[in-house]
């Protein structure tokens, strides 16, 4: 859900629909769970592929995933904001709690 203070026409929310290129040698990419981009700063190539880093990345981590490596990858791409969540059933009513960076 996007906050009412944000003009929805200015924001693009991308859900697991694209790969972020992390490095070319060796070739590595990540598929984000959720990415948010300001439309006016988005850069796309001639095939309409996103070429600029998103402004916000959110990851939902399973117990086996390495949070640090994912967040380091996004920092290397110059993503201004990134965060991750782990699912915990017993602590919050919704079952979702933010993890610390």
Structure in words:
- The longest helix has 10 residues, at 67-76.
- Strands 1-4-5-6-7 form a 5-stranded mixed beta sheet, covered by helices on one side. Strands 2-3 form a two-stranded antiparallel ribbon.
- Helices cover 10% and strands 36% of the residues.
- The two termini are 22 Å apart.
- The chain is mainly beta.
- It has 1 helix and 7 strands; from the N terminus they run βββββαββ.
- Residues 90-94 have low confidence and may be disordered.
- It has one domain (8-98): tt1808, chain A (Alpha-Beta Complex).
Brief overview:
The chain is mainly beta and 101 residues long. It has a single domain (8-98), classed as tt1808, chain A (Alpha-Beta Complex). It is built from one helix and seven strands.
- Can you tell me the residue ranges where pLDDT is under 50 for at least 5 consecutive residues? 90-94
In total, how many beta strands? 7
| CATH C-level | Alpha Beta
**Main sheet attributes: strand count, strand direction, barrel closure:** 5 strands, mixed
Helix/strand-derived category reads: mainly beta
Please tell me the overall pLDDT. Answer: 73
Binned strand content: 35-45%
| Outline | globular
Helix-strand string = EEEEEHEE
Global Rg:
15 Å
Instruction: Tell me the span between the first and last alpha carbons.
Output: 22 Å
CATH architectural category:
Alpha-Beta Complex
Strand order of the largest sheet: 1-4-5-6-7
Number of helices: 1
In helices, the fraction of residues equals under 10%
Structural domain count = 1
CATH-assigned fold name: tt1808, chain A
Instruction: Look at the structure and name the CATH superfamily.
Output: tt1808, chain A
């Amino acid at each position: 859900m996007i906050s009412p203070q944000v003009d929805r026409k200015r924001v693009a929310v991308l859900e697991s629909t694209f790969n972020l290129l992390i490095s070319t040698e060796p070739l590595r990419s990540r598929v984000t769970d959720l990415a948010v981009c300001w439309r006016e700063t988005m850069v796309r190539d001639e095939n309409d592929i996103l070429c600029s880093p998103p402004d916000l990345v959110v990851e939902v981590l399973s117990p086996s995933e390495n949070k640090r490596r994912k967040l380091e990858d996004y920092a290397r791409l110059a993503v201004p904001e990134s965060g991750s969540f782990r699912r915990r059933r017993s602590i919050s009513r919704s079952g979702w709690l933010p993890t610390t960076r």
